[in-house]
Amino acid sequence: MTHDLALDIAIGLFIAAGLVGTYRLLRGPALADRIIAMDVTLISFMGAIAVHAAKVDSTQNLIILVVLAIIGFTATVSAARFLQHEHAKPTS
Amino acid sequence: MRAVIDIVAASLMITGGTVALLAALGLLKFETAYARFHAAGKASPVAFLIAALGAALSLGPAGAGQLAVAAGAMILTLPVGVHLLFRAVHRTTSTQLLIDELAPAEAAAADAAADAKAAAEQAAD
What we know:
The complex is a heterodimer.
Chain A: H1 2-27, H2 31-56, H3 62-86
Chain B: H1 2-29, H2 33-59, H3 61-92, H4 102-124
């Protein structure tokens, strides 16, 4: 009972982190801020998935974490390369 | 024994959530892009690592393997991605920094590349 409550609190903390990250993702102002905010949001929800798996005591959803970790890296790298080519000259 | 492991796992997961929230707050409060990367790129993988440790304690060997693969992939790849982001921002913006050790290095690299190109053209002629 107390254990479930503790895990609920942990999930809530991760979701709060994800929501704060989403705010920065929507707000910007620069493209780089959005990219790093996307990373933080993704990692926060990955943490929430891990804690949820511990709460329901099932290993079924854990493969999602492996896939998300790799896809998150690909997304960050491609977005960084895009940023570098998009603003090749010093603008801001 | 089981109760002790559950308590340790739950406190690890709450710690991970707190660290994730701190990383997100750093993202929210800091002013410059570099400071935001500093807060987000270091704290958030640590947050996931702590929470994954707690979940692995709670789930046992079957879950621990998959969690270890996910956490290992993140620890190996995320610093690389954030480093690329840092470099892209450094190359595309002209913000004045107090200490900038990358700019002279990049200028030297560009000079060396230009020299090599000139030497190659001379050799071709």
